[in-house]
Amino acid sequence: MISIVVPIYNAEKYLADCLDSLVAQSDHDIEILCVDDGSTDQTIDILNSYSERYPFLRVVNQHNQGPSAARNRGIDEAKGEWIMFVDSDDWIDRNAFSRLQPYFNSPYQLIAFSYIREFRSQSLAKQVLSEETETFDDKDEVYSLFVRLLAPIENGKIHPDKLDSLSTVWGKLYRTDLIKSNHIRFVPTQVTGTAEDLLFNVDYFMLMQSAIYLPLTIYHYRKNSVESFTSLYKPDLFEKMQNLFHLIDQRVSLMKNQELTVALSYRKSLSLIGQGLNITFSGESWCRKHSQVSRILHSPLYAEPLNTLPLSVLPMHWRVFFWLAKCKCSGLVLLLLQIINKIIDR
What pLDDT sits at residue 343? Predict the structure, then answer.
């Protein structure tokens, strides 16, 4: 059985699209666990209408505690051999499980696949690793995938645009027994910000012994569900990012693997992009934004990783950005971030 866990909060706008794609998998042995995290819109009415029609869809209600708690509740309730996470504003292909079925009885402990980014006016496929099936069957190969989780390194090059392509929990099937027997759970977003997926995967990748990647674009990640960039601003993101990397540092240090240590250092440097964009999303003045960027560039979290980041392995446009960051040119770094913001907003 496959347990599909859907954390839900005020998702009335897109929820039907998500659920329709999931119930379409009913030719296979599935259970759909919809964890409503205290929604205040029409979400619960939509969920009840689906649960009445589909006995394999179960609604679990809880007081609002955040997406991590909702996913953890889904893990606790799951009865399947595999767990799949789907966000409530996303969807999967109607034939997704038919294409994945040959691997359900495989010995692999992780099945990863690619996805499609759904923008307002276009759909763009994103290959997480490559266009070929890749297997990871021994310790060294799993470590290589772990390195890729931490930093987007391909053929000796770093690709900042792929920083989070592997770190999401959607786009994967996990072994339920590995999660439950080792009590792998999501850390609250109040602690780590929105990067709870990455930390969950770090915990899982530390323990798994095999994996397979399939170049199947069967998950649809909706990129147009946020109404405004101002709503994206998180004033405490820097503090939460410090917490996140402290927790990952603790775990990676246990592995005693130099490649993982270097990859984590690269990830810290690359996370400057998200940190900086978060500042541009605020309604603060230029001077205030400049001060925040300067504070980040001079912080221990970024100063040392930036100093050791090899610019030669970056695409040319990112070499300029990170050279300016290395030089602590706060104003120019902020200017480039503002330009990136405008490009995103187009």
Answer: 76
